[in-house]
Automatic annotation (TrEMBL), chains A, B:
This is HTH araC/xylS-type domain-containing protein. Keywords: DNA-binding, Transcription, Transcription regulation. It comes from Paenibacillus contaminans. PROSITE patterns: HTH_ARAC_FAMILY_2. It holds the Pfam family HTH_18. One of its GO terms (molecular function) is DNA-binding transcription factor activity.
Length: 295, 295
């Protein structure tokens, strides 16, 4: 794994802290806000807030500092310090969360998150507009409707939003990534679609030109993006899926080698065995024997 | 709150157990499976599996019992007992998760989930097809692509799937609910859309006929569904949103009463104050004074 950007590292710590101690976290607000400024005194309202500027310009003040925000900016605010914003022409999304500090673990978690917020940049420039707005809107809906289980669902949505931010950061802030934000935004869903397609067609021949046609992309370009995102070209990835499916069928299905070979699109059990050995260094029969012995 | 169906109660316990101890949970598999039977010996593979029948018929065996499954059925499987299924004509979705038992809390969690699974019906009949398939497909994509943070994301997706199942159960298994599964399926997204619309138009007059036209539904029918889902008719809900927004503006914005009244669609600060007092029993000025004093 390539060296990560400091913001990505902090985001990962934040996600880890939240998911390990989810029962101490409570998402207390999620809303869309336009034009009217505000003044949150220190220590009031939610412990932490994360705001996304969707439109216009804001001038945010925290701890004597003024930070300008424009569309695509994400703000991490520790409300211990308070913060304020002038009236203006803007739309932003916000959610806030509290950390229950009644137990020592909760107090520790609060301090941990506070330390992470202190190390995170106050403003993170993200170029992925539609996705962020979708995530915030989900939070907004969930807190508005308050259906059964919404408290837990809100925490999950918060973690998922942070993971999305982390993934975006990984792309736009890491020099090791060979995907541009534009490609990330445009192709993330495409890549996962293709992978599911490859899985559901583990036994079929995959034609790169056909696949390119399906998504209206140059096949070689599609392959390059796919490799950029997954680390493997499409054909190789399809082979890995075949091996995984073979293992599953060998271990649990009771089908014989020929039946498994047919299921995976091979013409004979011999060609299947040859392929399997090339990929895993043992034959399918050896694998099955190993499983039987270990039971 | 009305008395809950026993399955809903168990699902709630499961969700609670998982979210309180998320770091001990690992989603180990998520896949779509067709036609080929399987045999999972006791204690092998994932600790627990939850399977959804999407097409066809299955005959599932567990602990000497055979249970027939058809589209819409959700199976809860404790793999300590093992389970198997015959070849057939079917498609199902499955995900499996493990509980790390190296620490005492993990061991306790495992036993807790095992007890919940023992009390859950092995098969739960759900009528909400599209939503379940969408949830399972999300899990499937996430585990296939394995992007940064996927382990945590998978747990969140699992919890969200369980919450959706719980909400469906609440509708279809609770006699207290006045929403049919058909309405749940059809209108859940609609209701949250309307709520967000009401929030974004807190200062506008809401015309029920216009709203009905927007969603191509009889306005009275729309209002009835909305009340069934939220407990309040649309007009009343809009008033409650106005109060919430008023409180927010009074507490943080620095706007004066007339400005807030205008923002919320009142013609004067007097009519705003009258409305606010009717809803909260104190006037906006009194509320602001209270806040000042408590700082």
């Amino acid at each position: 794994m390539a060296k990560l950007d400091p913001a990505t590292v902090q985001l990962e710590s934040l996600i880890h802290a939240v998911q390990s101690n989810m029962s101490f976290i409570e998402v207390t607000s999620a809303f869309k806000w336009a034009d009217i400024g505000w003044h949150v005194p220190p220590g009031v309202r939610a412990d932490f807030e994360i705001k996304y500027v969707a439109r216009g310009q804001i001038a945010l003040q925290q701890a004597g500092l003024s930070i300008a925000g424009s569309p695509g900016d994400l703000f991490f605010l520790d409300n211990q310090k308070g913060h304020s914003c002038e009236h203006g022409t803007f739309t932003l999304f916000s959610f806030g969360f509290n950390v229950a500090q009644n137990a020592p673990e909760g107090k520790r978690l609060y301090e941990q998150i506070q330390a992470i917020f202190a190390k995170l940049p106050q403003k993170l420039k993200l170029d992925i507009h539609g996705r962020m707005i979708r995530r915030y809107t989900e939070l907004n809906k969930e807190i508005s409707v308050r259906s059964f289980g919404y408290e837990v669902n809100l925490k999950c949505l918060m973690v998922q939003l942070l993971i999305e931010v982390m993934r975006i950061c990984l792309v736009i802030r890491s020099s090791a990534s060979n995907i541009t934000p534009y490609q990330y935004n445009k192709y993330t869903d495409l890549i996962s679609d293709i992978i599911v397609y490859l899985q559901e067609n583990a036994g079929e021949h995959i034609d790169l030109h056909e696949l390119g046609g399906k998504y209206m992309l140059n096949p070689r370009y599609l392959n390059r993006i796919f490799k950029g995102a997954t680390g493997f070209p499409i054909f190789r990835y399809h082979q890995m899926i075949k091996v995984e499916k073979a293992k599953k069928l060998l271990s649990t299905s009771g089908l014989n080698l020929l039946e498994i070979a047919m299921e995976l699109g091979f013409e004979s059990s011999q060609s299947f065995s040859k392929f399997y050995k090339k990929m895993t260094l043992i034959t399918p029969s050896e694998y099955r024997k190993m499983l039987k012995e270990s039971e």
